[in-house]
């Protein structure tokens, strides 16, 4: 149930995989773009033992699972809706979306 939009919203709001894991269903559902169904799905995912093993292996391999919040750039477009129409030279639609979101 967790797509890229909800995943990004959770990561931005909580800042780390550990904080997401520790959050209640109500806290997860309270994030913009995340509802009750997604929140319950996230909680169930973290309850599975082999998912915890995956997270442990990622951490052991050096995967960063926390956001460096102090280094985040100013969000000058936060709260705005950006609409891309037509074509952009050198960008696919998904690449343009990712460039705008990042």
Entry summary:
This protein is mostly helical and 102 residues long. It is built from six helices and no strands. The protein has helices at 4-14, 17-22, 25-29, 36-47, 49-60, 93-101.
Account of the 3D structure:
There is one protein chain. The protein is mostly helical and 102 residues long. The chain has six helices and no strands. The longest helix has 12 residues, at 36-47. It is globular. 9% of the residues are buried. The mean pLDDT is 86.
Which properties best describe this structure?
102 residues; mainly alpha; 6 helices
What is the strand tally?
Answer: 0
Describe the largest sheet: none
Number of helices: 6
Q: Characterize the overall form.
A: globular
H/E series, N to C? HHHHHH
Structural class: mainly alpha
Q: What is the C-alpha radius of gyration, as a whole number of Å? A: 16 Å
How far the N terminus sits from the C terminus, by CA atoms, comes to 22 Å
Task: Detail the poorly predicted runs.
Answer: none
Strand content: under 5%
Give the topology:
Layout: H1 4-14, H2 17-22, H3 25-29, H4 36-47, H5 49-60, H6 93-101
């Amino acid at each position: 149930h967790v797509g890229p939009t909800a995943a990004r919203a959770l990561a931005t709001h909580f800042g780390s995989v550990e904080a997401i894991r520790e959050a209640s269903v109500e806290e997860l559902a309270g994030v913009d773009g995340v509802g009750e169904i997604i929140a319950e799905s996230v909680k169930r995912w973290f309850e599975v033992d082999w998912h915890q093993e995956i997270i442990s292996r990622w951490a052991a391999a050096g995967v960063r699972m926390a956001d460096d919040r102090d280094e985040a750039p100013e969000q000058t477009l936060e709260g705005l809706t950006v609409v891309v129409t037509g074509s952009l030279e050198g960008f696919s639609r998904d690449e343009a979306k990712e460039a705008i979101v990042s």
